Amino acid sequence: MTPKNRREFLSDVGHSMLAAGLGASLASDLGFSTAFADRGPESLKLGPYESLVDLLRSTPPEKLQPILIAKLKAGEVDNKKLISAAALANAEAFGGQDYVGYHTAMAMLPALEMTKLLSTERQSLPVLKVLYRNSQQCQQHGGASKPTLMALHAAEHSAEGDMGLKIRDACRKADMDEAEGLFGTLAGASPRDAFNALQPAVHDDINVHRFVFAHRTYGMIGLLGKEYAHTLLRQSVRQMVGFEQDHKRNNNPDNPIRALLPKLLEQYKLVGKTPGKKDPGDAAVDELARAVYTGPAASSAEAVAAALADGVDPEVVGEAISLASNMLVLRQGADRWRTHGDSAGVHSSDATNAFRNMARNTDTRHAVAGLIVAAYHSASHEAFRGETYPLEEHRKAIKADDAAGLLAECEDAVKANDQGRASAAIQIYGEKGHPVDGVFQTLIKYTISEDGRLHGEKFFHTVREEYRTTRPAFRWRQITGLARVTASAYGYDREDKQGFHAPGYQEACRLLGIEA
Question: CA 414 to CA 444: how far, in whole Å?
Answer without folding.
Answer: 12
